[in-house]
Prior knowledge:
It is a single chain. The protein contains 4 helices and 6 strands, in the order ααββαββαββ. By secondary structure, it is of the alpha+beta class. It has a 6-stranded antiparallel beta sheet.
Amino acid sequence: MSADHSFVAEAMKQAVPWVGTTGVEFLEVSGDRVVTGLPDREDLHNHIGGPHAAVVFGVGETASGAVVMAAFAPHLERATPLVVRSEIAYRKPALGPLRAEAVLGRPAADVVAELEGGTRPEFPVHVTITNAEGVTTGEMTVVWTLRPNR
């Protein structure tokens, strides 16, 4: 039986106002994968007519946060997800609407086992950013942790 992840899009919009400001859309959400979309908006453009690098980073980081929320929702009352570090590679100019696909880099059960064992787990989320033609314009890894609430 699969879990219901329909809450993620609205929860992300409430928890992270930037999501609503930029118009990030949640196209697919599962417990280990999220796909977001970013419409092509002139007010988010840079000097070459595409989304500014900060916006490209933001849509990728948003996708990674959404997959963390989906994967660990049952545990968020006792732990707070936090970004530890991020790395992005801009592969090609990002022009037009974008998609960011985030995939959990470790099984959620392994991460939860570490949390239950009293450690502060770290885990990667791998993100691929593509344009409307499916060309990869960026790749990033966001390393998250679940900090136990005290």
